[in-house]
Design a protein that fits this description.
- With about 550 residues, the chain is of the alpha/beta class.
- It folds into two domains: about 400 residues, Aldolase class I (TIM Barrel); about 110 residues, no CATH class.
- The strands form five sheets. A six-stranded parallel β-sheet has the order 4-7-8-9-10-13. A six-stranded mixed β-sheet has the order 15-16-17-18-19-20.
- It is globular and about 75 Å long.
- It starts with 9 loop residues before the first helix and ends in a 5-residue tail after the last helix.
- The model has no long low-confidence stretch (mean pLDDT about 95).
Length: about 550
């Protein structure tokens, strides 16, 4: 198995969408397709937003197909994955890198693609959403917003590679990727019912008017302020500064986690000693708000970053991992209460910290938005949960949500801290005690004992598929977009590692040979394969049984991969 992701061309991306929708009435395995038919709009950065929901910068916003899946599910505020000067193998991301059994942990941080490659993914996604929103009646083509994210120091952000990333997302019209997308649609207008040349000519190329700054834990306050000033003044962008939970102080964080049932989460005081404090943050925010107003741009905070904790039960490789999900909820909403009180409610807050179906509506009603999610999409129904989340926020009265409601935020923080509904359940504590750490079990063959399809739903990269072979469901792994994050494995009920144990579809022979998986690929009218010790290239009718039936079903049910 290779952990390299291969970008999908815009031609292949759009043909995949159109064929899958025509055959299966779904898009990238999102079956609960969200259609916004309301008239309400939120105003942000001078743009319209149909709802305040989106995927957080992370595994769901690294590839074009991930972003498309998120939008189709109901997301309208797309927080693009953070880019920096390091990428690829330089990041040193171990595998697996995601563990989401209950609360979530990860050891991956910024985009694995180089910044210009990441930019191409985001441009393809933007153009695709402009097309499918109109073609399939999913919502207004101007009802969603992209928010870029960069890190982690001023020198890196000024690097020509990152600077070009920022400038080209501010206006992508002259990029090769934009021109290629435009040329494809003009050459393929016959595939669409609602798209014409005039519509294509009017697709706006100003993809991002806002940016989120992510800095490393331990970055000094003066460096953070210098970067923010640069992004506001020189780059002319609306800005969210991502803040760390450490602003609450060690004792507060320890108490909140203990009371919520996360006493087993271990961390030391060093992180709190090197990170900025609340005494640093509040006056800095006030200065940056004033600077933003001077520049005609909005300055706000993103709450919160993930939280570094110790690896004690082999959840993931290494010694330290980043905690997210429900364990982050009491920290994030408490920090929102502290900052909103300190700034008398005069603060724009973008939220990401354990929001889910139980809390997202209440968070929105306090005046905190946009609200982005990650962990909940790595579990259960995956992207298909977005439809429910979108409906929960869309049911609220947008007109009444005009500013932060400090008493409401404080009340919600108290509820989260005290209510068992938001705490680690006894059942999950028992489960963790019995089965700590990442389960490295493998299945004996390519069949599932119970084909539940969980690995299809929870994969952020859309790298697993279901086909029906001789009346039975079978998982086929898609090598092309997999980075071996391991999320399918930690959610597997067998347990097994689907990205290693299931038959795999490869782009070509080279990719198959870079992997240890059994699998197959298309070569003209023939099929190359590795299967139960045999490796060859043969016509379909000469493939070994039962591979012949599997390849035939794959070709029929998922032709958009070929």
């Amino acid at each position: 198995m290779s952990d390299i992701m291969y970008p999908v061309s815009f031609d292949k991306l759009m043909n995949h969408i159109l064929q899958e929708y025509a055959i299966h009435q779904r898009i990238y395995n999102v079956t609960k397709i969200h259609r916004y038919e309301g008239t309400k709009r939120l105003k942000l950065f001078g743009k319209n937003l149909e709802n305040p929901l989106g995927p957080a910068a992370g595994p769901h916003t690294q590839l074009a197909q991930n972003i498309i899946a998120a939008y189709v599910g109901g997301a309208r505020f797309i927080e693009l994955k953070t880019v920096q000067t390091l990428y690829g193998e330089e990041l040193g991301i171990p595998r697996p890198c995601i563990y989401s059994n209950d609360e979530s942990y990860n050891v991956e941080w910024s985009a694995e693609y180089r910044a210009d490659e990441a930019m191409a993914e985001y441009i393809k996604a933007w153009f695709a959403l402009k097309l499918i929103s109109k073609e399939f009646g999913l919502g207004s083509p101007d009802g969603f917003i992209f928010n870029m994210s960069v890190g982690y120091n001023l020198a890196g952000i000024k690097d020509p590679l990152i600077d070009a990333f920022i400038e080209n997302l501010k206006d992508a019209g002259k990029t090769e990727t934009w021109q290629a997308c435009k040329a494809w649609i003009l050459a393929n207008l016959d595939k669409f019912q609602q798209i014409d040349e005039a519509y294509v000519a009017n697709i706006n190329s100003d993809i991002c008017q806002s940016i989120t700054l992510s800095t490393m834990h331990g970055c000094p306050a003066n460096e953070i302020e210098a970067i923010c000033s640069y992004l506001l003044e020189t780059k002319g962008l609306n800005l969210y500064l991502k803040c760390n939970p450490t602003l609450l102080g060690y004792d507060r964080v320890r108490t909140l986690l203990d009371d919520a049932g996360f006493a087993y989460v271990k961390f030391d005081k060093h992180q709190f000693e090197v990170d900025p404090t609340m005494a640093d943050a509040v006056p800095m925010i006030e200065r940056l708000q004033a600077l933003g107003q001077k520049c005609g741009k909005q300055f706000g905070v993103k709450l919160t970053n993930t939280f570094p904790v110790q690896i004690l039960e082999k959840e993931l490789p290494g010694e330290q991992m980043y905690m997210a999900g429900k364990a982050l909820l009491p920290l994030t909403i408490t920090l929102a209460a502290e900052l909103s009180r300190a700034l008398a409610g005069k603060l724009a807050i973008s939220y990401s910290g354990g929001a889910d179906r139980k809390s997202i509506g209440d968070i929105f009603e306090t005046g905190i938005w946009p609200i982005t999610v990650c962990t909940t999409l790595l579990q259960g129904a995956g992207y298909d949960q977005l439809d429910d989340l979108a409906k929960r926020v869309e049911s609220k009265d947008y007109d009444s949500i005009t500013a932060l409601n400090v008493p409401a935020i404080e009340k919600l923080a108290q509820t989260v801290a005290l209510s068992p509904e938001f705490h680690k359940t006894e059942a999950m504590r028992v489960k963790r005690a019995k089965q700590p750490g990442f389960q490295a079990a493998h299945s004996e063959d390519y069949h599932c004992r119970v084909t539940c399809g969980t690995c299809v739903r929870v994969c952020p990269n859309r790298s697993n598929e279901l086909v029906t072979v001789d009346g039975q469901k079978l998982i086929i792994h898609i090598d092309e977009a997999c980075n071996e994050c391991g999320n399918c494995a930690c959610n597997c009920i067998e347990p097994c590692q689907p990205y290693k144990d299931r038959l795999t579809f490869f782009l070509d022979k080279a990719r198959l040979q870079a992997s240890e998986n059994d699998g197959f690929y298309k070569v003209g009218e023939e099929w190359g394969f590795r299967f139960k010790g045999q490796e060859a290239v043969l016509p379909l009718e000469k493939l070994p049984s039962p591979l012949q039936s599997i390849v035939s079903a794959f070709s029929k049910e998922l032709p958009y991969y070929l």
